[in-house]
Specification:
It is built from 18 helices and eight strands. By secondary structure, the protein is α/β, with parallel strands linked by helices. A six-stranded mixed sheet has the order 3-8-7-4-5-6. A two-stranded antiparallel sheet has the order 1-2. Strand 4 (347-355) and strand 5 form a beta hairpin. It is globular.
Length: 473
């Protein structure tokens, strides 16, 4: 702890607290030859395991310096009986779910709050802000972060149709972080805090609620839009909650994408018009405003149909090579990692892993000949830390089976887009599947022709049934 009477500067104190946060929120991923101490290193998905109660405080000096590599047998597998003798059943299950990857000899450090395991300033700021809110935040701050942030922003907001800048604006409105007049007034910043849409005789302070809904000018804009939204009866709730409610309501209607795009386009153009009036001397012309809303809605809808929703400057840009490959994978076009499409006979294998919250997983696969007849089908049961890791393990098992059976021309179909994107290199590897994907890369040179393709779940039922059967065994 920092001595409050010491003369550390504010910057030094910040660095010190940052180091504590980074150390607390980082973990180790063990390799086969791991040199990590079992009792002092956070190596079980970022946590330090505990021994059984009868081992705590007992004079087992030989266990004090136990390394993670000592928990493995000589074949690159976990020593299950030894692990269950030392740890509780809960910790033993978590340890046995960690895959030992032959391509990963050494340990590596990962950041818990990013899927790739790589630290970013954005995720670090989120952890630091969350820690500050928990220690010093008000009850209102806690309610806003937990209820709105978790229930809407994370699972729904970032998947809304339209340009990403629209989603960022909505996120700032919901979390109350948009710099409007009231915020400047509250911080004693000398700017005009009043709404620029209101008339001079009854100007009101520009709050988020007022700017995007309650202002009589904005209210008429909503009412005059193609959606005909009446805002007069909603002044009792925050505008962030109002936006969430409307998005949820529009999500249940026909033509949901276009309706949500139009709704977000109005919010975006209100903000753009407000800034143009303040900084560029523009003025409100209703016909021009609705024309801009219609134009931005059209561009967004066109981009969504083309598979590119990241608009820049209102234009639909050409797809990048990565986005083009993503588009092809979604449309069931195979991508080749080894070899290329030719006249050679390729064995097709459909694979489908299943994963449950108790860290149990299974995989089923069906091998088809070039004529469509079934050559082999089977399934296996194993442990995995996540669904994406189970998918990657299922593909690794199929590759190893094909090598053992001397099948070197292979087309693997999976219904997990995320893992296919990671194998294709168009998405960052998740830290839980990183070692398994490294094993897959190591196995690639064994094949003469190897390609991967996406298959929908409804066309992969046989492999799915085999995975469920393996799980029940």
């Amino acid at each position: 702890m920092i001595n409050k009477r010491c003369n550390w500067s504010w910057g030094t104190r910040s660095i010190y607290h940052g180091m504590i946060l980074i150390r607390k929120n980082s973990g180790w991923k063990p390799g086969i030859n791991s040199d990590l101490n079992v009792w002092t290193s956070p190596w079980v998905n970022g946590d330090i395991p505990s021994p059984k109660d009868d081992l705590i405080g007992s004079p087992n000096n030989h266990l004090m310096n136990l390394k993670v590599r000592d928990l493995c047998d000589g074949n690159g597998l976990w020593n299950q009986s030894y692990i269950r003798d030392i740890f509780t059943e809960e910790w033993a299950t978590k340890i046995l779910a960690i895959p030992l990857c032959f391509s990963q000899d050494t340990d590596y450090l990962f950041w818990k709050h990013n899927g790739s395991g790589i630290y970013s300033v954005k995720s670090g700021y989120g952890v630091a802000f969350g820690s500050f809110i928990e220690d010093k935040g008000s009850e209102k701050d806690l309610l806003r972060i937990t209820a709105i942030g978790k229930n809407f922003c994370r699972p729904k907001l970032w998947h809304l149709p339209g340009p990403h800048v629209w989603r960022i604006l909505v996120w700032k409105i919901i979390t109350g972080t948009l710099p409007v007049g009231y915020e400047f007034l509250r911080r004693n910043i000398s700017v005009n805090p009043f709404c620029i849409f209101c008339k001079d005789d009854y100007k009101e302070v520009e709050t988020l609620d007022h700017l995007f809904r309650d202002c009589h000018v904005i209210s008429r804009i909503w009412n005059g839009s193609c959606m005909g939204i009446n805002t007069l009866n909603n002044s009792h709730c925050r505008v962030g909650d109002w936006i969430i409610s409307w998005i949820g309501y529009l999500g249940k209607m026909d033509d949901v994408v276009n309706r949500i795009v139009q709704f977000l386009a109005i919010i975006w153009n209100i903000w753009v018009l407000r800034n143009n009036i303040i900084f560029r001397g523009a003025r409100l012309v209703p016909d021009v405003f609705f024309k801009l809303v219609s134009q931005s809605s059209y561009y967004a809808s066109e981009a969504i149909q083309l598979g590119n929703v990241d608009l820049k400057g209102g234009r639909v840009d050409e797809l990048s090579p990565k986005e083009d490959l993503r588009y092809k994978i979604k449309n069931f076009i195979p991508f080749y990692l080894i070899g290329k499409e030719s006249s050679c006979l390729i064995t097709r294998i459909k694979v489908d892993p299943s994963w449950f919250d108790n860290l149990e997983a299974s995989a089923g696969w069906v091998a088809y000949s070039n004529e469509g007849s079934i050559l082999f089908e089977g399934g296996s049961k194993f442990k995995a830390e996540s669904a994406s890791q189970a998918e990657a393990l299922g593909i690794r098992n199929v590759l190893e089976w094909a090598i053992r059976n001397r099948i070197f021309h292979l087309n693997i179909s999976s219904d997990c887009l995320q893992v296919l994107y990671q194998i294709a290199g168009i998405e960052q590897e998740h830290h839980l599947a990183k070692g398994v994907l490294g094993d897959i890369v190591t196995l690639l040179p064994s094949f003469h022709c190897l390609c991967f393709s996406f298959v929908p779940r409804n066309l992969n039922k046989r492999a799915h049934c085999l995975a469920k059967r393996a799980m029940s065994m």
